[in-house]
Amino acid sequence: TTARFTLDPAFTVGEVNPRLFGSFVEHLGRCVYTGIFEPDHPAADEAGIRTDVLDLVRELGVTAIRYPGGNFVSGYKWEDSVGPAEDRPRRLDLAWHSLETNRFGLSEYIDFLRKVGPQAEPMMAINLGTRGVAEALELQEYANHPSGTALSDLRAAHGDKDPFGIRMWCLGNEMDGPWQTGHKTAEEYGRLAAETARAMRQIDPGVELVACGSSGQSMPTFAEWEATVLKETYDLVDHVSLHAYYEPHEGDIDSFLASAVDMESFIDNVVATCDHVGARLKSKKKINLSFDEWNVWYLSRWEQHAEAHDPADWPEAPRLLEDNYSVLDAVVFGSLLIALLRHADRVTVACLAQLVNVIAPIMTEPGGPAWRQTTFFPFAQASRFGRGQVLDVRVDSPTYETEKYGETDLLHATAVRADDGTVTVFAVNRSRTEPLPLEVALSGLDLTSVTEHSALADTDPDARNTLDDPERVTPHPVEDTTLTDGTLTAVLEPLSWNVIRLA
Ligand code: AHR
């Protein structure tokens, strides 16, 4: 049977904020060291940034880049990471049981962003685990104040005369998680976040602040946490954060393929919670969502590793969380992108966790090449073609049974209309065995041709790109997709991510 939907420019979800295509660089494993930064690498520039990685980051089309954590930020002392590199202290990183040299720090991060290009925007997390209001203000002064104060002059003395202009700040990271250094109750965190936000706005009322929401929808404190935190911070912050990672559990691939069902319900539930607090406060303001960590992550493998490691060992830039993604993973990943786009009215920031080596679309070998994982392609295509108005897509699709989510649509789709009137359909076929015929009725859209139908699919859903075979998986063109008399007709391969561009 055929899956169907209608596109009509009169029915839209909202405008895509470019920040939806953000990513995340954490001091974790090899994301920074031998990932984006490797002074001895043949492709490194004068500052030690790998230019081969920079090229791929640009091609990926990332916008906001969150930094420096993640769990790492809850032990972060920003002042360790500035000034002459040879004077910077080596510290224990409790979050990842590693040794942090601070060779790469705040100035290097800003330099990296500038080299990525004007689309790249800083998104700085502050430590509300082991630290508080005073240190947040000091960091803000060092980073953003033009000159003439102790910390802004110190920045200039360190070689950065121009302020960094950091607009977006995350008030801590996953403070609801017992694993977080300095973990807090919702009441404790809500107060601290409110006081920090209030003080940061005294320096600059124009900062944009993200309060920590839950580390996942399955957290026991979920929703109550957001409600409590927002009760304290509603007028002081702009966004609340969401984090979600997906992997197959006990080999249940069909439920894994439907992971976006969970992601969409998570978004809906956080929107409802924010609006509930807003209603109680009789506020006209809406809190937006910053989905600032999302991905496929084989977390259970990491947990086994963490249990096995030697507590006396504090390695520098170890290989951690280096998941190698399959075609199957990329299809689920594409579906997560579709979920974010489908909620573009309220999800105004999202960060793919992470950027290089650590659960990442880009992989590198120390001293060696950099290459694209399977997940690189859906992200790059969505960032490139998913700009404009998201159209309201209501699918009528054949379904399949999943253990976790019950009856689920085989088709997951969205569509984005660019300013020039062209439309891109993003669609996933969740069937592992059957092609899915698709018919899209175009109403009120002046479109006459299919510019491109690209698919990521493979006869082997386990196919991956590796150091030895870095281009094993790439998207391929699909023939026979037509647009006649206002109807788009296509066939989506089993287990596929599809990008159909109409002009
Ligand atoms: O992205 C990896 C980790 O996942 C982050 O450090 C943390 O915030 C989350 O638990």
UniProtKB/TrEMBL annotation:
Q: Which UniProt keywords apply?
A: Carbohydrate metabolism, Glycosidase, Hydrolase
Identify which top EC class this enzyme belongs to.
hydrolase
* Ranges for region Disordered: 453-482
Q: What is its EC number?
A: 3.2.1.55
Instruction: List, in alphabetical order, the Gene Ontology terms for molecular function in this entry.
Output: alpha-L-arabinofuranosidase activity
Coiled coil (residue ranges): none
Q: Which residues form the Alpha-L-arabinofuranosidase C-terminal domain?
A: 292-496
Indicate the quaternary assembly.
Answer: Homohexamer; trimer of dimers.
What family, per the record? Answer: Belongs to the glycosyl hydrolase 51 family.
Q: Which domain of life is it from?
A: Bacteria
Q: What Gene3D superfamilies does the database record attribute to this sequence? A: Glycosidases (3.20.20.80), Golgi alpha-mannosidase II (2.60.40.1180)
Q: Which SMART domains match?
A: Alpha-L-AF_C
Q: Which reaction does it catalyse?
A: Hydrolysis of terminal non-reducing alpha-L-arabinofuranoside residues in alpha-L-arabinosides
Q: Does the keyword Ribosomal protein apply?
A: no
Q: Where is the composition biased (Basic and acidic residues)?
A: 461-479
Q: What is this protein called?
A: non-reducing end alpha-L-arabinofuranosidase
Q: Which Pfam families does this entry report, sorted A to Z?
A: Alpha-L-AF_C, ASD1_dom
| Naturally occurring in which organism (per UniProt) | Streptomyces pseudovenezuelae
